[in-house]
Amino acid sequence: MAQSLMIPRIDLRALFTDDAASLAELRRGVTEVGFLVVHDTPIGAQRVQAVIAAYRAFFALPEAEKAQVDMARTGANRGWGGPRSEQVDPAANPDFKEVFDMGFEVPGSPLGVHAPNLWPARPEGFRATLEGYYAEARTLALRLLGAIAGVLGADPAFFDDKFQAPMALLRGNAYPPRPDWAGARDFGIGAHTDYGCLTLLATDGVPGLEVLLRDGTWLPVQAAPGAFVINFGEMLEMWSGGRVRATPHRVIGGPEARISVPLFFNPSPDVNVAPPGSGHTIRAVDHLQRRFDETYVHLQRSPGSAG
User: Fold this and answer.
1) Buried (b) or exposed (e) across 60-83, using 16+ Cβ within 10 A?
2) Which one of 39, 59, 166, 304 is most buried, by most CB atoms within 10 A?
3) What pLDDT, on a 0 to 100 scale, did the predictor assign at position 208?
4) How many CB atoms lie within 10 A of CB 43?
5) pLDDT attached to residue 169
6) pTM > 0.85
7) Element (H, E) at 239
8) Is 3-18+60-301 a CATH 3.40.190.10 domain?
9) Is 75 in contact with 307 (CB distance < 8 Å)?
10) What's the confidence (pLDDT) of residue 190?
């Protein structure tokens, strides 16, 4: 495979000391591929394994218990979403995974992106585990954005004041083994580009994620706990004037169950993410809420209910 098509694998200890080769690979991953894998990060493997174990314990609960925190009861993406609660690809059937979402809370905010979180009574320690990891993951994501700004020739501090009340969503995805009935239009998650800025993805190491390369081939990509898959969304592609690449990806599903934990890291609601020099204003929240309304089945049924 040509070097230009390979997904960069970057040692963050080297990157954060301004290693020239690591910076060059970051630039290639950001502008040409749209994906990269990072390792030797401040978040260790044991921490990630504990988070995955917490999600696994929640998803193993009886459905009636999970339904107590069903996001379909809300106008936001908070709590549990059962199988087929999302449809990221309009040409495919709703995705057969289930999810649990939490995010940044702003008391009294009318915005769905800052809604209160919903917490189950079990498993024990679930909330504390997720909240602790959520804080660490946001810190790492912002540091990565600073490095990205630098390799694009911008001020590495450009993003620092843009994420004070972030629309940052932490999700646990539970993909079951691919069902026997699944057909060509059935996916763990259909082909899509992410909607927002940067995605920091931890997984249990089970393969499943595939990335669409520029030559039209689908390339499997995986990372063991402690390494992270990084990709970029439509918002950052627009915000950077097209310099950052948002790349389609999917999960078809295989014979093994799989858990992945993405942090969708997005700026504060009123940040202008319009292309630089365009003279336009596009609020981050308007872009993101429109895409959420198109994706979540419960929001499709009640458009505009998320504020």
Assistant:
1) ebeeeebeebbbbebbbbbbbbbe
2) 166
3) 82
4) 20
5) 95
6) yes
7) helix 234-239
8) no
9) yes
10) 75
Longest dimension (CA), the chain: 53
Task: Calculate ∠ Cα 185-78-106, nearest 5°.
Answer: 140
Query: Which string of DSSP letters, residue by residue, matches 34-75?
Result: SEEEEES-SS-HHHHHHHHHHHHHHHTS-HHHHGGGBGGGSS
Tell the burial category of 50 from Cβ atoms under 10 Å away from its Cβ (0-12, 13-18, 19+): middle
Question: Which residues partner with 201 through β-bridges?
Answer: 229, 262
Q: Quick one: tokens of 103?
A: 């995010």
How big is the chain by its Cα radius of gyration, in Å? Answer: 18
Residue 97: what residue type? K
Q: Got the DSSP string for 245-263?
A: PP--EEE---SS-EEEEEE
List CB contacts of 246: < 8 A, sequence separation 6 or more: 34, 193, 194, 231, 232, 233, 234, 236, 237
Q: Which amino acid is at 146?
A: G
Amino acid at residue number 265:
F
d(CA 183, CA 8): 32
CA angle 297, 232, 81 (to 5 degrees): 25
Altogether, the residues listed in the chain come to a count of: 307
The counts of H helices and E strands in the chain are 8, 12
Write down the pLDDT at residue 171.
Answer: 96
Residues of the chain with pLDDT under 50: 87, 89, 92, 298-307
Where on the phi/psi map is residue 125: left (φ > 0), alpha (ψ -120 to 50), or beta?
left
Nearest by Cα to 274 from 228, 238, 299 = 238
